[in-house]
Amino acid sequence: MPRSLSLAQLPITRPLIISSSATATCHSDREYPFISSKSTCVLDFLSSPFSLLKALLLRSKNLELLTMETSIACYSRGILPPNVSSQRSSTLVSPPSFSTSSSFKRLKSSSIFGDSLRLAPKSQFKATKAKSNGASTVTKCEIGQSLEEFLAQATPDKGLRTLLMCMGEALRTIAFKVRTASCGGTACVNSFGDEQLAVDMLADKLLFEALQYSHVCKYACSEEVPELQDMGGPVEGGFSVAFDPLDGSSIVDTNFTVGTIFGVWPGDKLTGVTGGDQVAAAMGIYGPRTTYVLAVKGFPGTHEFLLLDEGKWQHVKETTEIAEGKMFSPGNLRATFDNSEYSKLIDYYVKEKYTLRYTGGMVPDVNQIIVKEKGIFTNVTSPTAKAKLRLLFEVAPLGLLVENAGGFSSDGYKSVLDKTIINLDDRTQVAYGSKNEIIRFEETLYGTSRLKNVPIGVTA
User: What is the band of 188 on the pLDDT scale with cuts at 50, 70, 90?
Assistant: First the structure.
């Protein structure tokens, strides 16, 4: 009869790689030399594979981690897997305690959130302080910073920093899921034999888990689960988050770029608020590169972070101005059939030889405006082509990203950040772009524009 070996008794002397969907059974220390045992032992962690990860971390002060939701890689100091930087943090932080079971509307503790956040290698680039003419100094974020370093400069709110770091971990894992998903019809399953759920449902699950693990999120809801879910965080000093887990999921099988969108509101309300009440918004883009684009209210610019091979996010771009340029992304073109003003606007773009850049995915189509720093995205309605884009889950978060980058947004009359969210499922038409493009959009559709006398750089 095999004897059970306590996880806390495991010495870490060699790399240990374990699939989260298997039971590891070892029969001798010759076969499994990382376990110091002369007799048969059984490690059964099917019920909670991540309790193993926690136990291993607590066992060794020198342990560092690389994690993915479908696997756990633990390695001791001096033994590095391929593509992992030898640069290390000098200290390790003990993991927070968490229960292996909880009830929904509290989602089960995840996989990927926790110590991997704090064990990411530090960037070699440091933030500097730019001297001003007055007595005070202004902190300037530099290209090359890690996500953690950037957030320390961008907001003094530790809770918001924690939430955005946890969401970054979720985005990293969703990128892995998207890359490895084999899709047929409406179901997707990756090569490791994970649950046969559509990839957008997998993304949905990971994001809810990230928000629960952050311990600062009170309520969350998504396009897939459009009801408030209690994440267990506080009302005072906490946040509520709305997200589209995988915008463009219908084009995953064609290998087009897709992405995640989310907005963060203070407190416990996601209705009766406006997009302008957001304290942060972000999108994850899963294409040839994986990027995390975010904006923090009160901090200038919209910032792009690139996912590096070693699994950390590095600051690679800051956008503070959307200039004029002939690039357009026209959504919902069927509306031109019975919306003559929209048809006229499209005719103008074609006549003036604008470059057409449209993928059918809202995330890449809006992201290119921020990255290229020019252009316009439109999605207009008509009597027969109703509004599809949701104000809470897509339009408002992207509105903050564009406007923080120096651009403008419009529903035809006003900024989408000024629209009050009445119901979780509220929908609207929208345009994002440079000032003159939004003026043209409003004037062509409705004959006048609120931006006509607004200086560039001033939100209207």
Answer: low
